[in-house]
Amino acid sequence: MGMQLPREFTEKMKELLGAQYGDFFASYDQPRNFGLRVNTLKISTQEFEKLAPFHLKKIPWVENGYYYEEQDAPARHPFYYAGLYYLQEPSAMTPASVLKVRPGERVLDLCAAPGGKATELGAKLCAKGLLVANDISASRAKALLKNIEVFGIPNAFVTTAAPAVLARQFPAFFDKILVDAPCSGEGMFRKEAAAVKAWTADKPAVCAKQQKEILSSALEMLSPGGQLLYSTCTFSPEENEQVVAWVLRERRDMRLLDIPPYEGFAPGISKAAELKKCVRIFPHKMAGEGHFLALMQKAGTNGLPQESGFAETRPVGKMGKGSAIRGDEQAILTEFLSDVDMPMETARIEIRKGQAYYVPQYQSVRAGVPFLRNGLYLGELKKDRFEPSQSFAMALKKEQYAHTVDLDFSDERVVRYLKGETIAADTSGKGWRLVCVNGYPLGWGKAANGMLKNKYHAGWRMKY
Prior knowledge:
Elements (H helix, E strand, L loop, with lengths): L6 H11 L3 H6 L8 E4 L6 H7 L5 E2 L6 E3 L10 H4 L3 E3 L6 H5 L7 E4 L6 H10 L4 E5 L3 H13 L5 E4 L3 H7 L4 E7 L12 H6 L4 H19 E11 L8 H10 L3 E4 L8 E2 L11 E3 L9 E8 L11 E2 L15 H11 L11 E4 L2 E4 L4 E2 L6 E4 L1 E6 L4 E3 L1 H6 L8 E4 L4 H7 L4 E2 L6 E7 L2 E9 L2 E4 L10
Parallel strand pairs: 5-6, 5-8, 6-7, 8-9, 21-23
Antiparallel strand pairs: 1-3, 1-4, 2-3, 7-18, 9-13, 10-13, 11-12, 12-13, 14-17, 15-16, 16-19, 19-20, 22-25, 23-24, 24-25
């Protein structure tokens, strides 16, 4: 075996797995699995299978998950830039797949960066309701925000708050909460050598203390009747079944739910029959890395809290308050939006310091909550014009904008566009064009004299 595992870890796994330890240990000699998850907000799995030039094989326990081969290099393909999929380890797709989010719900991903699970939860909402995607690290949250924007999710509130701070703003508010907690990372040893180096024998106990603190805040934010999915990427019982048992002891209003079975899923490791409802994923049983899941529900009937800090959508009328909106600003934005056929309530459009936003269905009172983005950033109002944002382009469908340039992914102009170059375009007239690849938006360009001036986001450009 090429990988050197910590002795304390191997001894613990021998005790945990017994006769299965040999198979588990042998799995570390197997190659890792590569996975991508289709963005069903933009494309169906059936269309993706027809369109994508990759060697795809279904991940059987994730409806929109696929294995691919390393040589496919999907991170370098234009479809990746179009937000048609997210590259994610197969087992890590399971938590967001198990948490059954419905359009219009209020959903929280409490430890969300870099966005693998948040993007799936947002796609399930179908642009309705609210996704709060939080990560306490502002630097990690920037990557989270980019992935949410690439996916075209318009109804996200991206925050960088400590869980306790959020809990004060969102008491008993969320229908669904996902807590993919910071953990000792034992399940990622085969995938990431850095996880092995970072592990110590006392790390599981340290992580378990933090996990309980995070869950305490999360449970305060869960509405009556709401569901919480707790997950880790570790094998340690201290961070898994023992944390869930602590929740059930401390919170008599919480109960464990059954998770839909799959032939490779292993039950929770515990003498308590209730904890066997938890699910473990082992690399010797399934084509994925190690993971743990527990689905819990709070007692009561789900409903919008009265004192939540949020209000329902305001009636359609003038553009939202934000900062003061001058008549010329509104006229400029209205003129641009006349070419947009995207369902949008004018009451939810806010202009702040010359920047226009489309805020989510539930309006937050943000005092004391640090955040990167509330809703969809539409663009910037200049002196006499409106410049649409990259995130606005990603949230649109081709048919929702009047002026488009659509290129096949094999067209060399696609890569040149993604690198920030001016390209030739078969388009008459002047003005903004939504640049698409095989019908899926990539970003903006400005047409003039048969050329397309590049307006692709400089920070997102292809670097190779």
